[in-house]
Amino acid sequence: AIHNLAEEVKVVGNTSALSPYFQDTVAALLKTAFRNDADNNLQHDAFEAFNIMVYTAAPDSFPMIKQLIPEMMNRLKMTLERFQRGSLSLSDSTRLSNMQAQLCAGLNYAYGKLGKHAQDVLKFIPPLMNMLIAILNLPGSEAHEEALICVSTVARCTHEEFSIFMKGFGPQLMKFLKETSSSKVCSLATGVVGDIARALELKIAPYCDAIVTQLMTNAQ
Fold it and tell me: DSSP characters for 32-67?
């Protein structure tokens, strides 16, 4: 119901009919998603509603979106720490991967919505990129696709400054470009190339040979 309502409400000027309820609604949705007894379906539905609330938010809700970013990043950090401790059952590993995917999607929507208004939350980008790279390093993770999409959004937010992340992300990008057995992941990685190229402009030059060679190989 929340998902459908958010899709229908229109922004008028700086606000919308949902703006007075935005903070309490998204807080309740995140609380639901993070419940220990939430199964994958409930978690997914809560995040889907959260994402559409953020996507359709009016400008007067932007300050509240900014406040949500540290909380989601902290949750993402907790999932990585749990993986690092090891000794996970298959069901626990799957649950954590799903949570990572949903959090990456939520952060993607938050930064994507803020756009040029994200200047005062760009300070969270370096730790976010470190976590995205760590997720992309996890073998067979369900969160790879959402992590790649989030990287694209980071590139669009940081422009040429994204170059500082290429040392860590470049090898990951090449790995997924070579993953032709998974057409969706490879296609997403190809899309990331476009976003990074637009963000870096001339600073993409040191990586062009390797990227273009791999793209030509994929096209054969």
Answer: HHT-TT--HHHHHHHHHHHHHHHHT--GGGHHHHHH
- Please report where in the chains the tokens 């298959």 appear, as a residue: 90
The model's pTM is 0.92
Q: How far apart are CA 96 and CA 102, in angstroms?
A: 10
Concatenate the DSSP letters of all residues of 110-176 into one string. Answer: HHHHHGGGGGGGGGGHHHHHHHHHHHHHSTT-TTHHHHHHHHHHHHHHHGGGGGGGHHHHHHHHHHH
What CA–CA distance (Å, rounded) separates 96 from 54?
A: 23
- pLDDT tens digit sequence for 44-84: 999 999 999 999 999 999 999 999 999 999 999 999 999 98
